[in-house]
Design brief:
Helices cover 46% and strands 19% of the residues. The protein is of the alpha/beta class. Strand 1 and strand 2 form a beta hairpin.
């Protein structure tokens, strides 16, 4: 059964449709097009699987369509690839009424969304996420961007989609490593603000890893509902004490891993899992979590096939990379930590010695 949620942003509100065979539902997309003109941005992995499943019904419905196929991988989330999208849009004489549709995972969503935000100063945008990570997290909320050699997602814009179309059937072709990476963001939502969901995940993780359709749809819906509530309250992450920033649990440590190793060596979800364990260890050192709490966090990530130890970059390198994080305010690093399971907070008072100890314990 298909489900629909709403991201309530006034006149920029948009629906999230979750269910099977949604890529073929041209009617859902046609309702969101200004004119019958669109450009699908995808990659070399997704294109053979799903490009025509999405494109053919639109063409049949009379939509003039441009297809843009990019190389696959986090290492291509950069200016050069972004300009390939711009080049194709200009070559096809796409105007400001053309809707860009992102068909793929988080990298494609971020690239296509940033292209939409910048092409002719902004064109309409639709997300058609095909990975678990993008369906539960990156496709919702309007964060778009590219990486810089000094840091992940350092260049970008907030640009909300007109529609999110999460076709759960695309998860059937997702490699197990990618499915596990998506589970990191699912688990994160429970840890940040939904303890009953975290407990549900502990009981139902095997069903999710077995790709049971109803379990996956339930998890995606729960994550999207949580994220929609956060985005509606703090769309552009202006609440420095909480709000949308709390969704970055594990990301400051995790982004350091991705940048330090080179983009694409670890999947984003893998780095978030290891980073969340570091954040949990630091929270324990502050007296907020018990040994048992940290053990539960390690255990569920390990069950999901995710790393619970960080990359051995060395504490000094971690601190240097974390110093470039977007949550640095007036030179002070604000970490997202756990006051308790199900309640995250931002915290800028952690002693450097405790941060170093947490890194070394989790990476040694």
């Amino acid at each position: 059964m298909n489900r629909t949620l709403n991201v309530p942003l006034g006149d920029r509100s948009y629906p999230i449709h979750i269910g099977g065979s949604l890529l073929a539902r041209a009617d859902l997309i046609l309702d969101r097009l200004k004119v019958p003109r669109a450009a699908i941005v995808t990659n070399e992995t997704v294109a053979p699987l799903y490009l025509e499943a999405l494109a053919a019904p639109l063409v049949t419905a009379g939509v003039s369509l441009t297809r843009i196929v990019l190389p696959d991988g986090e290492q291509y989330k950069n200016w050069e690839t972004l300009n390939r999208i711009h080049d194709a849009l200009l070559a096809e004489r796409c105007d400001r009424s053309t809707t860009i549709i992102a068909l793929g995972g988080g990298v494609i969503g971020d690239l296509a969304g940033f292209a939409a935000a910048t092409y002719q100063r902004g064109v309409p945008f639709i997300q058609a996420p095909t990975t678990l990570l993008s369906q539960v997290d990156s496709s919702v909320g309007g964060k778009t961007g590219i990486n810089h050699p000094r840091g992940k997602n350092m260049i970008g814009a907030f640009w909300q989609p007109k529609l999110v179309l999460a076709d759960t059937h695309t998860l059937n072709t997702l490699p197990l490593r990618e499915l596990s990476a998506g589970m990191a963001e699912v688990i994160k939502i429970g840890l940040v603000r939904d303890l009953p969901f975290f407990e549900w995940l502990e009981a139902n993780l095997d069903r999710l890893l077995a790709r049971e359709p109803e379990a996956l749809a339930d998890a995606i819906q729960r994550c999207c509902r949580n994220k929609a509530e956060v985005v509606a309250a703090d769309e552009e992450e202006q609440d420095k004490e909480g709000g949308r920033a709390l969704l970055n649990l594990g990301h400051t440590f995790g982004h350091a891993i991705e940048t330090g190793l080179g983009f694409g060596q670890w999947l984003h979800g893998e780095a978030v899992a290891a980073g969340t364990v570091m954040a949990a260890e630091l929270s324990r050192r502050l007296g907020w979590l018990s040994d048992q709490d940290v053990a539960r966090i390690r255990r569920i990530f390990a069950r999901a096939g995710l790393p619970v130890r960080g990359a051995p970059l060395g504490a000094a390198r971690y601190l240097d990379l974390m110093g470039h994080d977007k949550k640095v305010v007036a030179g002070r690093l604000r970490l997202v930590l756990l006051r308790e399971l199900g309640r995250a907070v931002t915290y800028a008072e952690a002693r450097q010695a405790d941060i170093i100890d947490a890194i070394e314990v989790c990476c040694g």
